[in-house]
Design the sequence.
């Protein structure tokens, strides 16, 4: 809130003087009874897909990497997450017991050492992901694919130079040595390379021969590998419903009803695009491109075509969710899980698994929007208010205009309807502007050199924008005083955090791992103030307070002439963001990236304590508060945005 006259400013400063002399009270230590009206609520954005499985009416989705198990007991209306999986491993195969939904299997894999060595493991849970145990590890051959019979009793895992088979759910194993071709460090990366049909395991090979092979009698005393199908083109993926085999061969889907002895072309993409991700689900056969999804209800004789749920993303997995009516669920790993509603299109169900690295509110307080930056995407939504519904978690994304990678935002309080964004564009950076709460974006000027680090829309002059970057020549600061019509480049100043004085457009603060700096000429020159690491800075509009986050919190109560430590910390980027309550100058919030959730001060930043209401996912990267002070929003690592009613 910006005061429009010197008289109002003096009244506020007088009030602050009274508040500042009252001393520290019990409430100043974040009184649990004053921290909010309830628990944090997930508000989205629905953004992540993965490997799907269904057990009764329960839906499970395995996020491949960083691995996380998402569970829904209400047909995808809401989700909870469990993360007790090796975080440095990519999950490449997932199974959930259709009868006993507590039992699940997951195959994980990661590069290990040099010369094509891999470390793989088969993980199992009997309590829906609360605890995982390792059934087996593979090194240096890795574990690339997982196939099971419908009960999960027979388990097959493909490795670089063998096929591992367990007849008892992963407790005991037999390894079938490789007799199929493989050259060098060629590895069967990608999905749908292995399928179990009865007691036979069909799989596609890799360089130098992309063919279909089978191990017959995988659980027998003498399993035998043999070539099934070789063509002049590369055979890529394989799927089966137990009666029919299908393989993708370039732009074609080919099928066999006699277990590989004869083949027919079932589908050819009209545009010659490679077909991918064949699936059998709900008695239907699916295959598609990155743009379109082909569906056949008669084994591939006739087809209908529809767009994929998220254009350009293709399909990661498809399953049938039984019920009245039965629902087809379609996953796109970078966009979410969708329900195919038939003629009315797709309904996005989840999952809110994005890491929200930056978060701002935009617009007047009676009509605000939330704008969020993920890893490679940005999202926007009308500010979620009142009772939440599933539609509140469906935010607008921007997949078609550019790759929004490492995006940062800034909004000047004197122009709250405009959001400024800096984002990486290959080896350059773009500065973008939105005047409608993040719904549309316009490029400001030409792309600039470097990787973005921070952006500041000056709170005292919204036409002044500062952008820091790491360029080929080193750290630089790009500066404009005319809303991007012209820019100047200033060497140095590669700050990770910046803030401006709301009353003095020339006073700017910047900081990074080397410490805190101040500019008194709008960013042209800088004075080093402190060696303390800096990851967040906020300047209060009330009473000359400057709060600096890094390894703990520093506070200045005299416009930055001196600072004192008000909270200890160890990690130099422990504080992700600091925001002030818009109506109560005593109250501040800080995001803890190291697991404490959200910190709160009720005495003008002098003392701090975690909120009594814990954020479900405690690594908080960003914060925003509604203009009326009713709602606090926390952007988390791999769990989207949560809302707390204040």
Sequence:
């Amino acid at each position: 809130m910006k005061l429009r006259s010197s008289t109002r400013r003096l009244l506020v400063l007088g009030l602050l003087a009274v508040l500042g002399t009252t001393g520290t009270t019990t409430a100043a230590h974040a009184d649990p009874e004053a921290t909010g009206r309830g628990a944090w609520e997930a508000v989205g954005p629905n953004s992540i897909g993965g490997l799907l499985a269904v057990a009764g009416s329960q839906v499970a989705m395995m996020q491949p990497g960083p691995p996380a198990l998402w569970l829904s007991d209400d047909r995808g209306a809401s989700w909870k997450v469990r993360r007790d999986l090796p975080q440095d491993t990519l999950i490449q195969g997932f199974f959930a017991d259709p009868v006993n939904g507590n039992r699940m299997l997951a195959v994980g894999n990661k590069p290990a050492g040099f010369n094509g060595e891999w470390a793989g493991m088969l993980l199992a849970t009997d309590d829906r992901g609360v605890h995982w145990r390792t059934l087996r590890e593979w090194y240096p051959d890795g574990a690339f694919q997982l196939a099971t019979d419908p009960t999960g009793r027979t388990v097959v895992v493909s490795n670089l130079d063998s096929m591992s088979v367990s007849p008892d759910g992963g407790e005991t194993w037999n390894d079938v040595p490789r007799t199929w071709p493989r050259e060098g460090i060629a590895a069967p990366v990608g999905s749908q390379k292995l399928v179990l049909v009865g007691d036979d395991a069909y799989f596609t090979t890799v360089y130098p021969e992309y063919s279909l092979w089978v191990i017959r009698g995988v659980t027998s005393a003498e399993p035998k590998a043999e070539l099934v199908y070789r063509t002049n083109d590369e055979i890529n993926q394989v799927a089966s419903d137990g009666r029919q085999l299908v393989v993708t061969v370039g732009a074609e889907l080919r099928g066999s009803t006699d277990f590989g002895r004869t083949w027919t072309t079932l589908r050819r993409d009209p545009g010659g695009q490679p077909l991918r991700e064949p699936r059998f689900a709900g008695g239907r056969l699916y295959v598609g491109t990155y743009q379109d999804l082909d569906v056949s209800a008669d084994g591939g004789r006739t087809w209908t075509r529809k767009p994929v749920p998220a254009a350009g993303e293709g399909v990661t997995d498809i399953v049938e969710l039984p019920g009245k009516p039965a629902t087809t669920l379609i996953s796109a790993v970078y966009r979410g899980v969708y329900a195919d509603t038939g003629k009315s299109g797709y309904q996005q169900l989840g999952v809110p698994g994005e890491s929200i690295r930056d978060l701002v509110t935009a617009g007047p307080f009676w009509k605000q929007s939330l704008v969020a930056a993920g890893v490679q995407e940005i999202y926007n939504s009308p500010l979620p208010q009142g009772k939440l519904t599933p539609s509140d978690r469906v935010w607008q994304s921007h997949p078609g205009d550019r790759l929004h990678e490492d995006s940062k935002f800034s909004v000047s309080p004197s122009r709250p309807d405009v959001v400024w964004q800096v984002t990486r564009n290959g080896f350059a950076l773009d500065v973008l502007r939105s005047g409608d709460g993040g719904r549309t974006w316009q490029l400001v000027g030409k792309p600039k050199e470097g990787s973005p680090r921070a952006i500041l829309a000056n709170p005292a002059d919204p036409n002044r924008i500062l952008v820091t970057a790491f360029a080929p020549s080193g750290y630089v600061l790009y500066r404009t005083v005319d809303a991007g019509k012209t820019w100047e480049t200033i060497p140095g100043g590669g700050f990770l955090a910046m803030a401006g004085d709301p009353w003095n457009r020339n006073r700017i603060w910047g900081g990074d791992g080397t410490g805190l700096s101040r500019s008194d000429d709008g960013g042209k020159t800088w004075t080093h103030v402190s060696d303390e690491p800096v990851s967040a800075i906020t300047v209060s509009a009330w009473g000359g307070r400057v709060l600096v986050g890094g390894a703990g919190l520093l506070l200045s109560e005299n416009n930055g002439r001196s600072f004192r430590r008000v909270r200890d910390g160890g990690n130099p980027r422990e504080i992700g963001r600091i925001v002030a309550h818009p109506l109560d100058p005593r109250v501040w919030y800080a995001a803890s990236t190291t697991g404490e959730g959200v910190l709160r001060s009720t005495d003008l930043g002098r003392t701090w304590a975690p909120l009594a209401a814990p954020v479900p996912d405690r690594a908080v990267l960003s914060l925003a508060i509604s203009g009326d002070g009713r709602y606090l929003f926390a952007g988390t690592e791999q769990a989207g945005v949560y809302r707390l009613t204040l």
Remarks:
- Helices lie at 6-20.
